[in-house]
Amino acid sequence: MVIDFHIHGKLSSKINFDEEEFLRKVNEAKQEGLDTLVLTEHSHADNFTEAYSFLDNNFKYVHDYYNVNGVKIFTGVEVTTDEKLDILFVGERDRILEFNKKILNEREKQEFIKIDDLFNLLSDESFLVILAHPYRKHEEFPNINKDILDRIDAIEFNAKDLYNSGIEEMKYEVIKLSKVLNKSITGGSDSHYYLQIGSIKNKFNIDCNTVKELREQIRLNNYIVEISNDLSIRVRASKIIKKLIKGSK
What beta strand segments (E) does 34-141 contain? Predict the structure, then answer.
């Protein structure tokens, strides 16, 4: 199984979900040898459920994923905390939708939810939890209490961070942090535009059909993360095109 743990369904949080663009991402994934994607839209994105409505109306949901033209689409959400940490939660569809409703209700009280409050909402222990791009907004990793750290399964090699900070430099920092926290490392393209898909791949030794199986394999480190030689070209092209498209809206 070859998986990307971090893609977005929309070009940006304020732009409507584009069905054709989403299917272009799926097709690009297939061409790049990926057979599994995790949809981790921003919690605060406008009309968060648009993608789910499209998927429900057009594709079968089996085990813990949608089968979209032969590509597994697991469901998740990316949440930005008050501490400026971005965390990916991957879970069964209905649990993700319920969890995101709780987060949005909390946003009525505070723009960004505190990390302690966020994990207090997380009554479901079945989620896969990944700390996304840990150094994007921090020179040093902030202190997090042990109870929360224990619930995080992995930290991320993020394609944008690797591009912005230098691949070897960022790899070094994330690997060092993974050893300090005793966490696995997963890879995420963080794709908003289809060209970025394929910049990072996670190659598993077995096929996974449930989030529980994904968590088990991650904790066993039964996979490798592969960074594409053309990551910088993919990310740079995507950034330029994304900016042009947003500017034309």
Answer: 36-42, 60-62, 65-68, 71-80, 86-91, 128-132
CA 40 – CA 145 distance, rounded (Å) = 24
If DSSP codes are grouped into helix, strand and coil, which group holds residue 103? Answer: helix
248: CB partners within 8 A, 6+ apart = none
Supply the pTM of this predicted model: 0.94
Reported as a single tens digit per residue, the pLDDT across 120-166 is 998 777 899 999 988 877 666 778 888 999 999 999 999 999 999 99
C-alpha–C-alpha distance, residues 216 and 159, integer Å = 24
Sequence-distant (≥ 6) Cβ neighbours of residue 162 within 8 angstroms: 170, 171, 200, 227, 231, 235
Interatomic CA distance for residues 7 and 191, integer angstroms = 5
Among 116, 121, 112, 166, which residue's Cα sits nearest to residue 143? 116
3-state secondary structure of 215: helix
User: What spatial distance separates the first Cα and last Cα of the chain, rounded to whole Å?
Assistant: 37
The number of angstroms, rounded, from the C-alpha of 240 to the middle of its chain's C-alpha atoms is 21
pLDDT digit string, tens, across residues 170-215: 999 999 999 999 999 999 999 999 999 999 999 999 999 999 999 9
CATH number given to 2-248: 3.20.20.140
The token duo for 231 is: 């990551």
Taking a C-beta distance cutoff of 8 angstroms, is the pair 246, 11 a contact? yes
DSSP 16: P
- The pair phi, psi for residue 150, each rounded to 5°, is -65, -25
